[in-house]
Structures are given as C-alpha cells and as structure tokens.
Amino acid sequence: MSEAYVSPQNRSVAPAKPGEFSSPAIGTIRLSPPVVLAPMAGVTNWPFRFLCRRFGAGLYVSEMITARPLVEGREKTLKLADFGEDETPRSLQLYGVDPFYVGEAVKRLVGEGRVDHIDLNFGCPVRKVTSKGGGAAIPARPKLLASIVAAAVRNAGSIPVTIKFRKGIHRDLLTYEDAGRIGEAEGCRAVALHARTAAELYDGHADWNAIAHLKSIVHTIPVFGNGDIWEAADAIRMMRTTGCDGVVVGRGCLGRPWLFRDLAAMFEGALPPPPPNLGEVCDVMREHATLLCSWIGERHAMRTFRRHATWYTKGFRGSAALRQRLMHVEHMVDLEQVLQSVDPNEPFPIEAMRVPRGKTSGTQKVSLPEGFLQQRYDATPPSAAAAALTSGG
Q1: How far is the C-alpha of 28 from the C-alpha of 92, rounded, in Å?
Q2: DSSP 328
Q3: Distance (Å, rounded) from C-alpha 132 to C-alpha 19?
C-alpha cells in the first residue's frame, strides 16, 4: 500500500480481496460497499449527504429527528426531515422515548411515503437527552426499549427499521448485549454499536472487541460497527478484526466527504486515491456552502457552514489563521474572498488524516433522571419533556 496516502498504523492493511466481504441487506436495501454515514446532529442534513453520496456509495442517514414534534407537525422538525429531490434511499434517524409517539411518527413517515429506512437513536450521550431518560439511557430499561422498537417495527410495515446504541451507561453498566438481542427479537433489520459508553462520550479508543462480541450473539441480522473509522483502511481492519457486517462512519468524514471515495476503492480491492490538495478542498467547500444556501438561505447557511469550514481546513499550513477568517464569513462573497487567498497547490497534510474533528475528548458522569436505575425493568416512558426535546439534540 502506498505510504503516501495512509497513516503508519494502517500501512500493512491490504484492500479487500474479491469476495472477502458480502453486501449486507437492510430490508430491500443492499449496501455495497457495506458503509453507513452516521447520523450527526446539525451535520447530516441533505446538502452534506448529497456531497458524501457524490463521492461514494453507501447508506446516508439524516440527522436525528424527534418523534413527538414530528407527530405534532412542527415546522422546524419537518424541515430537518427534508430529503434531496433525487435522494435514494431516504434514510432517517428517529429519536423517541414513548412507544406511542414513536409509533405515530413512523406511521406518518411511512404513510406519507417520506422514507425508505428508519433508524432509531438509543445512543445519544448528551446531558439534555440522558437527563430526561432518553438516548443512551433507554437501553438501561430493556422493557421500555423493547416496547419502543416493537411500536416502530409494527408501524413501519415493509420499511426496514434499525437501531443504533452504545456499549452502555458506563463500564459498570453495559447494556449493548440486551440492546442487540432486543433489536433482533423485535424485528429490526440490523443493529449498530458505537463501541463506547455514554460516559466515555468520544474519548479514547473505541472498543472493537465489543463489536466482535455483539456479532457473536446476534445471528440473524447484520451487525454494524461504529467508532474510530478515520481512514478507509480502518473500515477494512474493523471488519477483519470483529467479523461485523459493515461500518458506520461518523467524525472521520467531517470536512472530508471524500472518505467515502476511499472506502469504495478499498472495498473494491484498490488503493485509496491521493487526497485532494487545498485548491480541490476549496472547491468542495464552495459546493457545500452553495447547497446549504439553496436549502436554508444564505445568512443561516453561512453560520452553519463555519464549523464545517474549520474541519475542511484542519491541518493545512497556516490553517489556524485561516479558520479565524472563516469563522466570520457572513455571505458567499466573504467565503470566496477567503478561499481565493490560499495556495491551491498546497498538498493535503497526511498527518492530519487521523486528527479528530467534531467532538473529541473528555468523559462525563452520565446524568439520568432521579431513581432511573432503581426502576430498570419499568416500561413506563420518561417524562413528557424527554419526548418533546428539540430535534437534532
């Protein structure tokens, strides 16, 4: 493998051999390559999904949509549920804590012909979600988890439902075995494990051994692994190491949507192509910003794009000063002025390939509702406040 385009730790990872990996099916959706874009709040809207899809095939999941506001028809939530005109398959991640609202949301999405796949969020670790008993907290109550999943599957009909979850609350309360078994038993078409606990957030290294263990106990549906896919070679290495059926890519593609091109190449048995130089990165940035403007208007788009701009430019020479300028763009013309000031021939810094983007380090004490863990086998949904959380949290 060319050392120029691969980090030292992956130089011994060869591309896939013919027939080495199958193309897992999620209902009627067959994934070739076996790659899924992780739903990320404020990131995986349709403009970003469009950009990633242009670089390579896979399943591209929307950012998290909250069930109850969707049922109530709130405009902001419906906007977040937008898909591109020709986007297919249309994959949406749904968050909910109450089987009734999850079931009704699925019924609406399917009845209106909005989706081809629904993923349920049981892995969000942020305080405002877990403190109300949602997200990564729900698998700690297996009966509640089962009732939510059953409601979604029942109302989805032929539309496949999958679930994504973490290892557990913390290292002394692991819930992923139960979550995997429940997903399989209640009719999910696949399960995905982010191999960290909620307490770990995005800290340290993902525990790929947990993915292997989940694969060993879930036998009838695909198991996808999530965590630390920074390069295409990481995906090959994860699948060879764990035996999982596919990978879920999150932070590794932030500011690098061409990662899906690299993934497609390595799963087809080829070496990853050279990464783009700074001029080519700027072209992608222009396209991304233009798509956002067409979706939500220039002013809002530019504010949304600022953090993407920091991810695109991370690691390039002088990028700290460049990012300071990018954080103040208000209009497309401002962005163009900044981009025209760079050296377009500057090569992509290979050492930046594994630099974390987005949420990076630090752990937390997981915030849960009072008495939540003393009532683990209670199927009663959490408070109404948890069901009404703003989408994208």
Answers
A1: 16
A2: T
A3: 46
Rounded to whole angstroms, the Cα distance separating 53 from 37 reads: 10
Write out the DSSP string of 335-346.
HHHHHTTS-TTP
Report if residue 8 sits inside a domain: no
Whether residues 76 and 182 share a domain: the answer is: yes
Contact 135, 124 (CB under 8 A): yes
Question: Taking a C-beta distance cutoff of 8 angstroms, is the pair 358, 312 a contact?
Answer: no
Instruction: Tell me, yes or no, whether 376 lies in a domain.
Output: no
Please tell me the distance from the alpha carbon of residue 199 to that of residue 229, in angstroms, as a whole number.
20
Instruction: Find out whether 275 and 349 touch, Cβ atoms under 8 Å.
Output: no
pLDDT in tens, 313-342: 999 988 899 999 999 999 999 999 999 999
Residue 89, amino acid: P
DSSP 309-325: HHHHHTTSTTHHHHHHH
pLDDT tens track for 128-186: 999 999 999 999 999 999 999 999 999 999 999 999 999 999 999 999 999 999 999 99
State the pTM of this model: 0.95
Across all residues in the chain, what is the average pLDDT? Answer: 93
Do residues 123 and 166 make contact, with C-beta atoms less than 8 angstroms apart? yes
Structural domain includes residue 9: no
What is the torsion angle, in degrees rounded to the nearest 10, for the CA atoms of residue 361, residue 382, residue 170 and residue 217? -110
Give the range of the structural domain holding residue 250, as residue numbers without chain letter. 23-272
What is the number of domains present in the chain? 2
Classified as helix, coil or strand, 121 is strand
* Radius of gyration (C-alpha) of the chain in whole angstroms: 20
User: What is the rounded CA–CA span in Å between residue 191 and residue 157?
Assistant: 18
Q: CB neighbours of 391 closer than 8 A, spacing ≥ 6?
A: 63, 64, 65, 66, 69, 70, 76, 77, 80, 95
Q: Which helix (H) or strand (E) holds 162?
A: strand 161-166
Catalytic residue among 52, 124, 244, 253: 124
Q: For this structure, is 124 an active site residue?
A: yes
Whether residue 156 contacts residue 110, with contact meaning beta carbons closer than 8 Å, is answered with yes
Place of tokens 């949420």: 359
CATH, residue 331: 1.10.1200.80
Of 272, 297, 313, at which residue does a domain stop?
272
Contacts of 232 (CB under 8 A, 6+ apart): 259, 262, 263, 265, 266, 267, 272
3-class state of residue 66 by DSSP: strand
